[in-house]
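re the bet — no i am not wrong, look at it urself. input seq straight from the record:
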Amino acid sequence: SAFIVEAGEDLTVPADVADPGSDDLTTTWDWDDGTNSVIVSLVNPPVDDPLKSPTVQPRDLNLDATHAYGDACLYELDVTAVDDDGGSGSDAATVVITGNADTSRGSGYWYANLRPKKPNDFSTAELECYLAIAGFFSLVFPDGLTRTDGREILNSPAKSPEEIIFDEEALAAWLNFANGAVKLDTMVDSTGDGIPDSTFGDAMFVAESVRVHPTATSNEIKAQKDIVERIVLRDES
């Protein structure tokens, strides 16, 4: 569960704020990129509510704030409301900002970019962000994937077991998603007949569910690997 938009695209996040007292309320959206949005809601504008509020006017506000992230990454948004008596409440949400790419790339491309070489299509920070997004969504990969982890996953020998080859293609698929080349609702071909019949999100969920199932056979995992590989290579001739 997350808010998902591309880098540079406006994201509007709502917040419902309730207070039983007649208090001025300050609501802050901490976007986790060094910026905040703040809305001050006075109970009796334009004057501030005095201490020991003389009236009883319960607050029930429906607020929202809009922000555009400049960089693709995984963010933790915090929204906090504070009243003029020092009472407070907060909530949090994950925000996924993807890149602006329009072409899916194969596992070899991602392996080359994860190697410690220059020049590179991505900075270390960008690659770490993409790996964080992959770990957030994937049923196969854990949170906290490092660049070294990514290289090892994407450099599987040709004769590796099917689950190892599956992981290589699955990580490439999630890196394409993080880069913006495919969205969760992008229609993809999961049957090999050239006709899009499933969303990317659904196809990946089914494929990874098979991959992590303890009784899945090599043939079952291979069948799902073929689907994921077809999705990964859909933009390559």
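see?? The first helix runs from residue 107 to 114. told u. also The chain has a mean pLDDT of 94. so pay up
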